[in-house]
Amino acid sequence: MPPTPQVGLAELARILAACGGEDACTELSEEQLDESFYELGLDSLAVLQAVGVLARTYRIVVPEELVVEAETPRMLLEMIGTLFGWSSHSA
C-alpha cells in the first residue's frame, strides 16, 4: 500500500468549511490554528464529519475518542500526523 499523503492546512480548511455550514470559517490561516473549533464557528458534529471525509479521502482510520480530544485545528493536524508518523503539517 502506498504511503498516505499528509493532510495539510489548506486541505483541512477546505474540508472544515464544507462540513461546517454557512457560519463556519471559509479560510483557515496559521494564526487560527490555535483557535477552538467553536470560535471558528464549528460544532463537534462538523468536526466529526470532517474527520469522516479525511478518513474516506485518505483511507485512514482516526479513533473517535481521539477526535473528541482535538479542540483546535492544530491539535487535529498533530493528532493525525502522530497517528501516521508525519513530522509536520503542510499547506
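the 2nd protein, sequnce then structure:
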Amino acid sequence: MEIDLSKRLEIKINNERPVGLEALSLSLLAFNHQFHKFVESETNKETDVGSELLIKEVRSGSIVVELVSQAAPIVPLLWEGGTLAQWSKVVEDTCKWLLGKTNTKPKNVSKQDLQEWNKFVEPVAKDNGSQMNINVSDSGKVINQFIINSAEANAMQNRIGHMIEDLDTPEDNIHRRKVMYWYQTKFDPNSDTGNKAIIDDLSKTGLKVIFENNAVKEEMLHVDPKFGKPWQELAYVVDVEVQTVRGIPKMYKVLNITLSIPLTLMRSRPLTNSSNRPPLRCSFCAFPLRSHKTINSVPAA
C-alpha cells in the first residue's frame, strides 16, 4: 500500500536532561500499538488500511520524530483529514481524559492500554521542565497541535496508577437468600482454608468460603440435630458477599445463614473433596442441589 508522505505526525520532546533510550523506545512502541488498536477498532476486515506508523525522519536539536502512515483508501471515506489527523484527536482526547479535563472515556480502555499511555508520557514525566509537542501537518500546514508538559505527564501517570489499582481491587457485591452447598471442605472448624462452595446463581465453580465472623461460622457448625446430618452434608440459604476481580467471582464471604436444607447422598459421581463423596441432593425432591437456583425453588419442610 502507498505511503502518504503529505500527512505527517511530529512528536517533539523539548528535554532538559538526556532521555534514556529505553524510555524513548518504549514510549514510541506504546504510541504505535495504540495507533494499531485505533485503526483495527475503527475499520472492518474488508477495509485495507495500514495500522503501522513509520518513522520518516529523526531530526537533531530536541528529540524530534516525524511519523507517517500508509494512505487510507478514498472510498469509503474513513476520516476527514486522514488517519493521522483523526488519531491525533484521539490522543488529545485521551490525554484530556487522563488529566480529568473531560468525562468522556475512550472506548474499551483496558489495563494494558493504561500501561501503554503511562509509557508514552514517561520521557517527559521524569524530566522536570520538559514538554512534548504533538502536531499533525498536511502538505506543510499544521492541522492539529497540542502540548503535554512535565507536570501534566506526571498528573496523567498518577491518575493511571489509581485506575490500575481500581482494576486490581476486588469489587464487593452482596447477594441475599442464595442456596449454597459444599463443593470441597477440610471439615476443620478452626480453619477456613480448603473450604469451597457452589452457589449456582453466581458461579458454577467451587469458590473459597470465609465467614463474616465466628458467630456465623458457629451457626453453620452447630446445626439442629433433627436433620440427622453433619453440617458438611447440608445446604444453606445464605446472605453472601461475592468478591470479584474484574467481574469474575473469586470468593464468598458468608454474612448470614437464614435456612439449612437437609440433603441425601446419591452415588452418581464423585464430589471433589478429600473424602470422595458423591454429589449432594435435596432430600425433598432428589434433584442435585445445584438445580436449586433460589430459595423459592426449595420445597418447604
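The longest strand covers residues 248-265. The two ends are 74 Å apart (CA to CA).
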